[in-house]
Amino acid sequence: MTSLLTLRRAFVINRILIRHGLEEFLAPTPLSRLTQLMRLFALTSNRNKSLNRGQRLNQALTELGPIFIKLGQMLSTRRDLLPDDIADELAKLQDKVAPFESEVAINVVEQQLNSPIDQVFSQFDRTPLASASVAQVHSATLINGDDVVVKIIRPGIKKKIKADLKLLYLLAGWFEKYSSTGRRLHAKTIIKDYQTTLFNELDLRIEAANTSQLKRNFEDNSILYVPAVYWDLCRKRVMVQEKISGIPIGDIEALKSADVDMRLLAHRGVEIFFTQVFKHSYFHADMHPGNIFVDASNPQDPKYIGIDCGIMGTLNESDKRYLAQNFVAFFNRDYRRIAELHLDSGWIPAKVSVEEFESAIRTACEPIFGKPLDEISFGQFLVQLFQTARRFEMEVQPQLVLLQKTLLYIEGLGRQLYPKLDLWETAQPFLKSWLKETYGPKAVWLKMKNKAPEWLEQLPEMPDKINKLLDQVEKREEHQHQLVNAIQTLKKAQSRGAQKIVWALAGTALVMAGFSELPGWLSAQWGDVGLLTLSLVCFMVSFRS
Q1: N or C: which end of the chain has fewer CB within 10 A?
Q2: Contact in structure between 349 and 337 (CB atoms under 8 Å)
């Protein structure tokens, strides 16, 4: 049963949406019945009428608080489902909230580390560097002199998240029940994915492990630096990490003032993305400008610095092959190949016509090629591809949604840094080289070479395994033969049963005829006794059957 607290929160949401002129989002739900009443409590209705609905939704979610801000940020990644005006504005949501008291932060650190703070840090800055909905960050210095940052989970946030999630599930259920758009969006599934992401962010050990993995992946590649984690000082609600210094990637003026090679910086951003996706199968899925800095100590050899690894994406071999081959086919305008890749991967039902799907992809993608090559967007291609594929019953995979979001971030940053960035020029050699190295003759030979010791080890056991396999085949054939016989027996039984019913019905009809007034010719030919005798014969035949 819905609690009074949940209903109260639903009442507040209703009032805020109406105040921002967003009644259309309530129309498919039972809350729409309260719209007139809510206008009395909204104080000002349809505030900022000059703003579009996306801008007004941005404001409403900001007023609703941190959990709704993060939900809006996540929804902004579903450009395959949302209108562009809403997705664009949701992407601008900033996860910034008022910090909690420094005394509270210190208490959390001391409880988690089971030690007085002055025994761990020689200095702890009471003013936070940053404060977000789930955690805030403080600068500090360790006893050994290392400069670090301390990330601390916001007290009481788990209880608040659970309460808001309960309400979001209720709203999502209404949305799916009363709105075709809600069913198409799979609203409850989106909230479930959101819940998983949120609860992962509440355990900073997960972020610490993600950070260590990403750092290890780029140990031999200096274009991305990931700060070190102090594992001895990491707990569920506290994480201590190396403090970095650099220019925020979004501060274009500062980068230009430092004489940074912007073209090289933009190309390296694309290279980092493709290296994470295709080489490591593990990528930072939250690479917005606030999480990326630039080491400009050598302006002609700039390096990226990545922080906040709370959300990471992974891809399997099938996903990587699908993406690489689709990208190559896209830039070759080979829409037939794209359609075949979807069918071969099983992502589109086998019943779908290749020709029909090819035509739909061509219609969606051709306008993209109306732009100069340096303006063609990988991210926009994925958005169009997913939108088209959903019409043919393709369920978008969560890891690909994360990838699409990351690619849109990287492209936006790249073009902001260097407007004439030609993504295809950067990506094509990488993709073709990866496909060749992974699926070319040399790659096949290396795989066989690596498997050879295992095959040789199993070789003496092969005769026994073959015998077992043949026995299984024989047993399977025997079972199939028994099944065929059983089916034939059943068919015969059904046939006999049908005959029995026919004879019984005939006998019943003759009995009924014997007790009714017969036509003259029938009565003269058979008579009542004759009909009853004939019916008795029919019943006897039926019983024998």
Answers
A1: N
A2: no
